[in-house]
Amino acid sequence: MRGRFGWIGAGVLLVGLVGVLLVGFTAVAQTTNLLGGSETAQTERAVEPTGAKQDPPKPVQEPETEVTEQEETKQEETDEPDEEISNEEQAEAAETFSAPKEPASASASASASASASASASAPADTTMTLDIPAIGVSVGVYEGTAEDSLTAGTGHLSGTGYPWIPGSNTYIAGHRLGYPGTGSDHIFYDLPSLGIGDEVFLTDANGKTYTYAVSEILEVPITDLSVTAPVGRDVVSLQTCIEDYGDYWSEGPNWNVRYVVRADKV
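Request: output the structure for the sequence above.
Response:
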């Protein structure tokens, strides 16, 4: 009996030992699996793009290069239009500087045409006839203001304009008292009686009549020749002498003031 129980005990121990070994093997295997799973997870995390996201060189450098190229391209595209605009502005500036030449040329052409027309219509003789209905004057106008011209009637101041030339100040002088029995006798005596709007007529040697209307009255020193200059429009200036400023009816003897009646062509 004792021998039988001895073998049974030994068998039980053997089974227990085997069980313990199986349990230990199982625990080791599970521990191995757990460690394996942990390593796998770490490996998976290692190959994820997390490291790539944190790695700056390539991902950052390449976009910077692309942006730089784009900026350069954009700058080149921007520079080209700027150059074109600059050229256009220069062209416009050139046209602006050239623009006045056309009116000047047109003006020169108009002046040339007017001069040609005036030359074509200008009479060969500069003698004219002056008519002032308001004071009953009808008298010849002779070239120059020498005494022979003034004695014959009235004189056209040489160097001033003529009614057939555009922009002229046709300047005519006459005595206030003149000489009895001549065309100068009291010819401009009533000149101070003319008022604004009174008509004045000049007729050239070709029979063409030019009509004017009195526009202003001037009294200047006898040394003032500015009244003989062009005024920028077609006018006739009729001049005589008076004794003093505002003294229209004294008959000399000094005649210190030029009395000028100016009329615009109508």
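Confidence is low (pLDDT under 50) at residues 27-68, 73-108.
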